Amino acid sequence: MTFPPVSALDIFADVSEFTTFARSKGLRFHLVSTSVQDLIFQEAARLSAKSAASSPLAWFDEYHTYNDTKAWYLDLSRQFPQLATFVPTVGKTWENRDLFAFRITANPNPSRPKIWVQCNIHAREWITSATCQYAFHHILNNYGVDQAVTELLNSAEFVVIPFVNPDGYDFTWSNDRLWRKNRRNNGGSYGVDLNRNYDVQWGGVGSSPLPSSDTYHGPGPNSEPEVQSLVAYFSSLSNVIASLDVHSYSQLILRPYTHIAAASANEADLKQVSDEMVSIILGVHGKRFTPGPWYSALYPSSGVSQDYYYAHGSPFSLTIELRPTTAVPGFVLPPDEIIPSGEEVTPALLHYAQFALNSNLRKQN
């Protein structure tokens, strides 16, 4: 099998140990930064000293724990009872946390077209859940004010999973800021990469059978309670026309497929909407995102949520990789980038949802 070329890899490691290893193997490398751990220390100190938010938008001045965010979504549903529904749980994690959901529409109708959005499948990607919070806070506050928002919520429903990986996310607050996986006890190591555990092409290229690996695919397809719960919840919904998995970092908009270099059945539409999303994002703060098929624009991967949702009835299935483009600050993105990230992603998300809705209406006619 031939894989697309990789120009470079970002590696977090002890400088001395990696230098010795790389030189022994004749590898070329460039030291980008020795300050990632310093960023983590600074973040921890800042969070320990944070004060309570004094206004609705002040919430976005900082990152928040799983418990605080869950309470925030519940409060948001109470502020907008005609539009938002807080679903306390659609399943449990290994450590018995709730996988809660948040649904937004006007005049709910079970058959209404739905847009599935999930965040924080990888624990260390804090900006993903924060950007989702901004986006749906904005959407709720602009119903009846913004014509595009109003028309969309009158016609479609957002189904949001704010945290796919609550256990891992909580672990990044308490133990290891750069933890990626869930918290399955593998007996000698912990965690499964939930974004290699879905049953589409499970166990294939770009996933690992080694429990200690960051891309460990788990003992079997859909083996993890988090994936099992989301698959069941997704399957219970009718007419899911679009799905978006929100990740960081790299500033990419990725479309099927993840596991093979082949065009999907609706490649033309997916390419068009991806290109338009890139243009929308660029017009907000000048951040340039790159669109492309996952397999060639990122790296070959199997058992990924994007291809699962595409294979199970969601014709518009994308992954977005948020800010930044570089390993520093990488996953430890400063909180003053939460609002700018939300400002650029929200209109792109709205356009994506409307594009999928229009496509769905054309098919019906």
Give a brief rundown of this model:
Helix content is 38%, strand content 12%. Strand 6, helix 8 and strand 7 (290-293) form a beta-alpha-beta unit. It starts with 14 loop residues before the first helix and ends with a helix.
Walkthrough of the structure:
The structure is a single chain. The chain has 365 residues and is α/β, with parallel strands linked by helices. It has a single domain (24-364), classed as Aminopeptidase (3-Layer(aba) Sandwich), CATH 3.40.630.10. 38% of the residues lie in helices and 12% in strands. It has helices at residues 15-24, 36-48, 66-79, 126-141, 147-155, 166-174, 225-236, 267-285, 294-297, 305-311, 338-364; strands at 84-87, 101-104, 114-119, 157-161, 240-248, 252-255, 290-293, 316-322. The chain has an eight-stranded mixed sheet, sandwiched between helices. Helix 8 (267-285) links the parallel strand 6 and strand 7. Helix 4 (126-141) packs across helix 11 (338-364), helix 5 (147-155) packs across helix 11 and helix 8 (267-285) packs antiparallel against helix 11. The mean pLDDT is 92.
